[in-house]
Design brief:
Elements: E1 8-13, E2 18-19, E3 22-23, H1 25-37, E4 43-48, H2 52-62, E5 69-71, H3 80-96, E6 101-105, H4 108-118, H5 126-129, E7 137-143, E8 146-152, E9 155-156
Parallel strand pairs: 1-6, 4-5, 4-6
Antiparallel strand pairs: 1-7, 2-3, 7-8, 8-9
Length: 157
Amino acid sequence: MSDLQCAATLLICCPGDADDAGLILPARSQARELGRSLGSARVSMVYSSSAPAAVQTAELAAAPSELMVRVRNGLDSSSPEARQGVVEELQAIVDQHRGETVLVVSDAVAVRSVVPPLAKNLPDDYGDSHDAPPCSVTELAVDGDGWLVRSWAGRQV
């Protein structure tokens, strides 16, 4: 089987809610629960945007499995131009992790505006009418046939 046919699985989630001091207490609990729930997924790496809430969420989620967190500035989608950078970062992560499962923590704008156009099984505007709450996981399988969303914010599509 070629690398292109060996699917990478991306688990993409939004960071927990934060204030000036960092993640609020309920968000810290959500991130820890996310980490515990990933145990059976055999996640090999955790990536995060550079936003403080995303980094904290990623670190808390990575802790139960003692996974390393890599911060990637390209996962920040603060502008429409930056969204293309998110697409490029996600593609680079997929290319590096064929046959593996990785967690990516990025902001809600990235999840809701970048993921649907990449997926062959969702309309481009899917994220406009479907929320992606903090610490909920959107699962994608990516191989030579394209991007396929298996679940959106924990719900089957």
